[in-house]
Amino acid sequence: MTADLTTLSPGHPSVKYGKVGVLLVNLGTPDGTDYSSMRRYLREFLTDRRVIEWSRWKWYPILFGIVLNTRPQKVGKAYETIWNKEKNESYLRTYTRNQSDLMAERLRDLPNVKVDWAMRYGQPSIADRIQALKDDGCERIVLFPLYPQYAAATTATVNDKAFEKLQKMRWQPAIRTVPQYHDDETYIEALANSVNRHLSTLDWQPEKIIASFHGIPMSYFKLGDPYYCFCQKTGRLLREKLGLSEDQFMVTFQSRFGPEEWLQPYTDKTVEELARAGTKRIAVLNPGFVSDCLETLEEIAEQAAESFHHNGGDKFTHIPCLNDSEDGMNVLEKVVRRELLGWA
Length: 344
Ligand SMILES: C=CC1=C(C)c2cc3[nH]c(cc4nc(cc5[nH]c(cc1n2)c(C)c5CCC(=O)O)C(CCC(=O)O)=C4C)c(C)c3C=C
Ligand SMILES: [Fe+2]
Ligand SMILES: [Fe+2]
Description:
It is a single chain. By secondary structure, the protein is of the alpha/beta class. The chain folds into 2 domains: 13-180 and 326-341, Rossmann fold (3-Layer(aba) Sandwich), CATH 3.40.50.1400; 185-319, Rossmann fold (3-Layer(aba) Sandwich), CATH 3.40.50. Helices cover 48% and strands 16% of the residues. It has 12 helices and 8 strands. The strands form 2 sheets. A 4-stranded parallel β-sheet has the order 2-1-3-4, sandwiched between helices. α2 crosses α3 and α7 runs antiparallel to α12 (326-341). It is globular and about 65 Å long. The protein starts with 12 loop residues before the first helix and ends with a helix. The relative contact order is 0.16. The structure holds ligand L6N33NVT and fe (ii) ion (2 copies). One fe (ii) ion is lined by residues 255, 295, 299. One fe (ii) ion binds next to α11.
């Protein structure tokens, strides 16, 4: 444990009142890269009304008529290029499980705290893990959607799913949901360290650093989703921490899906335009992703790199996510301890 983290005292009321569960929840992942695993996963994902807010009569014919017939094959191929072959699973799953195991070790001073993990889509499900924590005696659960920047499509849908499970329970555990930590000092410092450490391994330096966040449709922002503002704040704090000018650092948005306008500037277009305009060396990081996944390893480290080179760029580097690193775990531990204190 690092010195600046607040420790719960042994006299903490949760010791007296029973066990507390900590449930880390990430987005999800298919069980395999084959057509039926991919289809099952995408179906669960893309029927979530927090993700696609179109009315069902408009969306379902497109989803079941086109998307679920073509996308599983295409995305399955992309997953194959980034699959963790040793564990036969996606890296998102590997990192989330590691984060849970490491969190349990870091909270050993709190023997009444149990740590577990779940996925919003796919396995292990939120409902199963809430039940398991309750069966293990947890009367309180800290529900931690692993997204530094709140969005309805990510944080809120994790909360919704947990409360859907609670609705079916006779004896519900008490739940604390973890809010965004987009401007947390430990988080910004961890990101800055990851940039500096990565760049120190290179024999060249980027002209521009791009902080690429997952996008959301512009219409969600106009309806009041705060996600864009949280991303901008993370970007500004990181730029300041790195001591970079506005010319040397950019915030962009990736993973556009469908015909609507999404948050801009788009990462893919930016990378292409920078290369065409003569920028030779860039670095890209993904501060909004707690773990590397398809969107970072394939869309950025593979596709964006290829596009940069194809359009005249010379050097491209992808800075890995915080994953299960020491710095990354410091961030998650700090957030969890802060929330546990709410019950003190
Ligand atoms: C179509 C709407 C989508 C919205 C809105 C959206 C928001 C959103 N997503 C993440 C994080 C991740 N998304 C990932 C994959 C992914 N995202 C969408 C669609 C939307 N996401 C799709 C269809 C997919 C699957 C891949 C594909 O078909 O292109 C992942 C990767 C999961 C993995 O297993 O690797 C993450 C992580 C955030 C943070 C976000 C809004 C803020
Ligand atoms: Fe997504
Ligand atoms: Fe993508």
